[in-house]
Amino acid sequence: MVKKAKENEIKYEDALDRLEKIIEVLQEGKLSLDESLDAFQEGIKLLKLCRQRLDDADMKVKLLIKDESGNMTETPFDIEGES
Fold first, then answer.
1. How far apart are CA 39 and CA 6, in angstroms?
2. What is the tally of structural domains in the chain?
3. What pTM, to 2 d.p., does this model score?
4. Structural domain of residue 75, as residue ranges?
5. Measured in whole angstroms, how far is the alpha carbon of residue 2 from the centre of its chain?
6. Mean per-residue pLDDT for 35-53?
């Protein structure tokens, strides 16, 4: 059986790891139909949670890069020093 995670207490990275584990378990095909549906439902919740956390982080970054006049300047995020 798949162990469920509490949405409010989970970090983005942990939610993503949990989602990957759910995918692996579902791909094995060893769960019953009910267990598969429960795992799928948990996966959808985790996916939404990850998406929301990414959207929140995106908004914070955009707020941080506003210039002094309050105008938003879209600046690509440089992940690994690539230019």
1. 13
2. 1
3. 0.68
4. 1-83
5. 19
6. 96
